[in-house]
Design a protein that fits this description.
The chain is built from three helices and eleven strands; from the N terminus they run βββββββββββααα. It is α+β, with helices and mostly antiparallel strands.
């Protein structure tokens, strides 16, 4: 995906193995571009894994530059419910999330993997452990409650809002 402020820029999807560079598109945000054509924003799907040549540097809210200490990250989209706000971000192995627009320009990365299915932060990020625990509690409850009746509940069905009991 590409952030809302890149909607006036030509875009295309990323490919596995592709080399990218962080670039200021002059629209109020930074994003990824192919080094050979920085006029086109390269859009990533949430869950895309990236490897940087050097530890990722970014600007803090006070405009100081800092280093994450990491060379790998997963692309995420955050705050999707808030309009006119940057959503594109990178999540680092220590859990730190940095908006893509804060990355220093000129950093090189390689697309390691693309997700088989786009994921939001809520689906794959910070809420996942709580969601899995909640789903397993529902599964345990439905198995106990439905004992003796034909049940079709499974952990996969638990999130559907139905216990699956007949």
């Amino acid at each position: 995906m590409c952030d809302y402020s890149l909607h006036s820029v030509r875009t295309r999807p990323a490919k596995v193995g592709e080399k990218l560079v962080t670039h200021n598109f002059g629209t109020g945000t930074r994003g990824f571009a192919a080094p050979e054509d920085c006029s086109v924003a390269v859009c990533l799907l949430p869950g895309t894994e990236l490897a940087f040549e050097t530890p990722v540097k970014y600007q803090t809210a006070l405009m100081f530059r800092t280093n994450t200490g990491h060379t790998v990250a997963i692309f995420r989209q955050i705050n999707k419910g808030v309009l006119h706000m940057n959503h594109d971000a990178l999540e680092f192995p220590d859990g730190e999330i940095v908006l893509l627009t804060r990355l220093c320009e000129g950093q090189r990365a390689t697309v390691l993997t693309l997700p088989t299915q786009a994921k939001t932060t809520d689906e794959a990020g910070t809420l996942a452990p709580r969601t899995r625990r909640w789903m397993s509690e529902i599964w345990s409850f439905s198995s106990m409650y439905c004992a003796g009746s034909p049940c079709v509940a499974s952990p996969r069905d638990a999130g559907s809002g139905s216990l699956g009991c007949c």
